Amino acid sequence: MRKKLLDFMQGWFGFLWCVVILFSLLTVVTSFGNFTTAIAWSATVKVLVVAGGGGGGGGGDVNEGLYKCGGGGGAGGFIYNESYPVVAGSYSVTVSNGGAGGPFDVKTEKGGNGGNSIFDNIIAYGGGGGGNGENSTRGNSGGSGGGGGANHSLNGWAQGGSGTSGQGNNGGTAANGDINVNQFGGSGGGGGAGGDGGSGVRGNPSSSGVGGIGISNSISGSPVTYAVGGNGRVTNDSGNGNNGSANTGNGGEGGGQSGNGGAGGSGIVIIRYVTAEFGECTGGTITTDGSDTIHTFTSSGIFTVKMLSLPTVTTGSTTNTTASSTTLNGTVNANGLSTTAWFNYGITSGSYTGTSTTQSVSGSTDTSVSVSVSGLSASSTYYYRIAAQSSAGTSYGSESSFTTSAAPTPTDTTA
Questions:
Q1: Pairing between strand 400-403 and 354-355?
Q2: Which of 54, 187, 213, 342 is 20 to 30 A (C-alpha) from 43?
């Protein structure tokens, strides 16, 4: 008996608790007044992230009478996302420099790896530095791998570094020369976003590995090729390697005799979106291309996403009310978007069978909206609210009411 009583009390307690919660929710909803149909806002952007290219490896000292050359630097990692989801808020953007070119006549130092470029959770890895010619070292791994360095007096091959899957490719292998048969060597080219770096070929003449091809992308509004691997050199060549172009992620060229490797090109981050789907976003250099807005980051910064602002609406009082007509009034702030406003009305609270004509609203200040409605019934209470719609969504004002006046008494013409 005691257990039955306890179960009964628990059941009633749970029921009453649910009633309390439901009443609280209804109180919150009915007291809210103006409301909107929009829910949590999100949209997508196109994003290109390119890391810094690797520096080319350094060559040897021509005064030593031996031929040596550095491998080409690997391209920076290349990532393009056609539809990356964002919400309102701030996103950190990191744009990194390319790696330093390797010095000549230093056995222990290769070309430097490029730095990583980052947008939110997208990380593009810096390109691998090219191997040095002084000691015929392997190229570094990275977004794309650096090419191996070549030496005229060391038989064998120096492999290129490995590229990162989905971002780049492998560096080319160096072919060392053979001093005994007067054959020259060629260093490997750095890997590119679109293909492996070429391998060097021993001979007289020898040939160097060509840097791997990059990838063309038009996110900026015109086609640009990014992330090209740096070229290798032949062992009997001389001079410094060429630098990778700025903000391309290209690898630096290997250094020849008494030449330093070229520095890798710096990275870049570009964000593009449909202008009408966003508020006024900030960050980077802002340009437009047709219906799209483009944010170009050539240095680190912050990309701030702003959502579209819904119209702000307030239901006002009626004026000029008669037995069959009235003027409905309210205010609308379009918040910078092209907006259409109207009124809903009907004889039942919360149920609107009538819709007024519309009025266009623009700008970012409160604008008065007044619409006359006719064909109403005399001595009747009507409920109404203002509504406004833009590309951001629809807003509804709180409900108000008015009562039409009595129908005029017919004039007695028989007296």
A1: unpaired
A2: 342
What confidence tens digit (pLDDT) does each residue in 22-59 have? 333 333 333 234 544 444 457 899 999 999 999 999 98
Cα distance between residue 339 and residue 389, in whole Å: 5
Cα 190 from Cα 177, distance rounded (Å): 19
Q: Which helix (H) or strand (E) holds 27?
A: helix 2-30
* Residues across the chain: 415
- Do residues 302 and 383 lie in contact, with contact meaning Cβ atoms separated by under 8 Å? no
In this predicted model, what pLDDT tens digit does every residue of 78-117 receive, in sequence order? 999 999 999 989 999 999 999 999 998 787 789 999 999 9
Give the Cα separation of 73 and 160 in Å (integer): 10
Query: Helix (H, G, I), strand (E, B), or coil: what is residue 357?
Result: coil
Whether the per-residue pLDDT at 2 is higher than 50: the answer is no
d(CA 140, CA 106): 16
Selection from 79, 81, 129, 122 nearest residue 103 by Cα: 129
Nearest to 168 by CA among 140, 131, 207, 137: 140
- The helix (run of H) or strand (run of E) holding residue 12 is helix 2-30
